[in-house]
Amino acid sequence: QKEVEQDPGPLSVPEGAIVSLNCTYSNSAFQYFMWYRQYSRKGPELLMYTYSSGNKEDGRFTAQVDKSSKYISLFIRDSQPSDSATYLCAMKDNQGGKLIFGQGTELSVKP
Amino acid sequence: SQTIHQWPATLVQPVGSPLSLECTVEGTSNPNLYWYRQAAGRGLQLLFYSVGIGQISSEVPQNLSASRPQDRQFILSSKKLLLSDSGFYLCAWMGQVAGELFFGEGSRLTVL
Q1: Cα dihedral: A100, B46, B42, A72 (round 10)
Q2: pLDDT of residue B42 exceeding 80
Q3: CB of B102 within 8 Å of any CB in chain A?
Q4: What per-residue confidence (pLDDT) applies to B2?
Q5: Which helix (DSSP H) or strand (DSSP E) does residue B20 occupy?
Q6: Are the Cβ atoms of B103 and A49 closer than 8 angstroms?
Q7: Using a CB-CB distance cutoff of 8 angstroms, which residues of chain A are in contact with residue B88?
Q8: Does B108 reach chain A within 8 Å, measured CB to CB?
Q9: pLDDT confidence of B7, banded at 50, 70, 90?
Q10: Do the beta carbons of residue B111 and residue B82 sit within 8 Å?
C-alpha cells in the first residue's frame, strides 16, 4: 500500500463547476498537507498548505484536512479553463521526514 | 525573493553519452536541495537531496550521481546515459515554514 493515494483521473468538468480533488494517506504522523498545481511541461507550483486538521481558503481554492479519516481535499470553486492542470497532493510529518507526493490528478476544465 | 533556475530546459542525448543538469537557487542561503524525476504519467521520484555543500544523500541506486559544489548550486550527472534515464528532471529547494518544496521549471531529457 502506498503511503499516499491519489486518483490519477483524468477528471473533466465544465467551466464554472466545483471541483473536488482528494487524497488518502496511511501514515498518522503526517502533519503538513500541501497541494501543488503542475501545468504541462512545467514544474509543480505550491498552491497552499495546511497544518494538522481544518480548512484553509485562498480565493477560489479551499484545502480541507480530515485526520480522523486520513483524507484531504482541494476544492476549486467557479473552475476556469486556466485551472486545467495536474494537481498533486503532498504531505510530511513534523519530525524532519521527507515530503511524500501523490501521483497527481489530471484536471481538464472545458469552456 | 527566492528563485530557482534549471538548465538546460530540453536535452536530447544518445545512449552512452554523459549528462550534466544544473540548478541554482537565489535569495536564500544554505537551502536543502532536491533532485526529482517525473516519468510520463507518473508521480515524482526523489533521486537525491543535499543539506549542505558536499553532502549528498541518494534515494535510489542508479546510473545517476549528484554534487553540490557551492551552497546554492546542485548538479545532476551521469557518465553514460541509459534509455531508462529519459524523463522530466526537477530541482527543488525546501522552505522553512512547513518543509514545503519550491520547484524549478524542469529539464526534459530524452535519451535515444
Answers
A1: 10
A2: no
A3: yes
A4: 86
A5: strand B19-26
A6: no
A7: 41
A8: yes
A9: very high
A10: yes
pLDDT at B93: 95
Of B6, B46, B97, the CB nearest to A98: B46
Distance from the Cα of A111 to chain B's closest Cα (Å) equals 24
Residue showing cell 480541507? A64
Single-letter code of the amino acid located at B63: N
CB contact under 8 A, A46 and B100: yes
Length of chain B: 112
The chain A residues in contact with chain B (CB within 8 A) are: 8, 32, 34, 41-46, 49, 51, 88, 90, 92, 96, 98-99, 101-104
CA distance A97 to A26: 15
Q: Which of A52-56, A94-98, B31-35 has the highest mean pLDDT?
A: B31-35
- pLDDT at position B99, please? 85
- Work out how many CB contacts closer than 8 A connect A with B: 46
Residue A93 has pLDDT above 80, yes or no: yes
Decide if A104 and B100 are in contact by the 8 Å CB cutoff. Answer: no
**Single-letter code of the amino acid located at A106:** E
- Which chain A residue is nearest to residue B87, measuring alpha carbons? A41
Query: Residue B41 above 70 pLDDT?
Result: no
At residue B75 the predicted structure's pLDDT band, cuts being 50, 70 and 90, is very high
Which chain B residue's Cα is nearest to A97? B99
A61 and A12 in contact (C-beta within 8 Å)? Answer: no
As a whole number of Å, the CA-based R_g of chain A is 13
